[in-house]
Design brief:
This protein is of the alpha/beta class and 261 residues long. It is built from 8 helices and 11 strands. Strand 5, helix 4 and strand 6 (118-123) form a beta-alpha-beta unit. It is globular, with a radius of gyration of 17 Å. The site of zinc ion has 6 residues, from helix 4.
Length: 261
């Protein structure tokens, strides 16, 4: 299995919206303003080529959801490169699966503007059901046009990992010793912050439970990759698993685990 990281944009954010005061005092890198990346992951392995999330779209920056539009306006998100030209630059001209963690514009908007064939696009059932929150995130009429299958296929290597809270159907994916956790964690430091500000969770209690679940996985040595962790860098065509970034990320995760509150 190989894992590649791409960045589709940046969101300038005041980290007091993401982390509790206690966490900001304990981890200096979580204090103040920062630019968080908007990451998309490609897994190449037994299931063929699987993309996890579709990122921003330059042609429709945060999708058509009201919340997406508000995010783009208030946070001045700066999509600088869609995922599609980045994949094509790596000679990837088709995908077997596109798995969406949740229907927020920064994860979903790229689906609309895909330039390469994708055999199957999937998202958690709960996030495809009609609800006010889902409508605010991304209108169902838009989602219908995207041809998304509710739920996830039986695959050999990549398994869905339900991580509700950020949205009801928010789903991560686990493959080998890697878990792609979407927005269940703001960064690896969030493992130490099961009571983050309410801002980015539809159900804060469910989000806390998901964080506890991720702690257990991390303790088993599974490396957690979240969609907006500023310490994750694009791999520029190099496999993450054989790059120096892999061991750096793992030791950072172990450091956070060693000092959990
Ligand atoms: Zn996000």
């Amino acid at each position: 299995m190989q894992v590649f990281i791409y960045n589709t944009g940046a969101i300038p954010i005041d980290q007091s919206k993401l982390y509790s005061k206690k966490t900001r005092e304990k981890y200096p890198e979580t204090a103040g303003k920062t630019n968080i990346p908007n990451l998309v992951f490609l897994v190449v392995g037994e299931d063929g080529k699987t993309l996890i999330d579709a990122g921003f779209s330059i042609r429709n920056p945060m999708g058509d959801g009201l919340r997406g539009k508000a995010l783009a306006y208030f946070y001045k998100a700066t999509p600088y490169k869609e995922i599609w030209p980045q994949l094509m630059a790596q000679r990837i001209s088709s995908l077997d699966y596109l798995l969406i963690t949740h229907p927020h514009g920064d994860h979903l908007a790229g689906v609309e503007t895909r330039d390469i064939p994708v055999s199957q696009i999937c998202m958690g059932k709960e996030d495809l059901s009609p609800s006010l929150a889902n409508w605010l995130n991304y209108p169902l009429r838009m989602i219908k046009g995207l041809n998304i299958t509710p739920g996830f296929p039986k695959t050999k290597e990549i398994q869905p990992l339900p991580l509700p809270g950020h949205t009801p159907g928010h789903t991560g994916f686990i493959a080998g010793n890697i878990a792609f956790v979407g927005d269940a964690l703001e960064s690896i430091v969030s493992l130490d912050d099961p009571n983050p500000p309410k801002k980015f969770a539809e159900d804060i209690k469910a989000k806390a439970k998901s964080i506890i679940k991720l702690r257990e996985l991390a303790k088993q040595g599974v490396l957690l990759l979240s969609a907006h962790d500023p310490s994750l860098a694009p791999t520029q065509g190099q496999d993450l698993l054989t790059s120096p970034q892999y061991s750096a990320l793992l030791s950072r995760q172990e450091k956070v685990l060693a000092q959990l509150s």
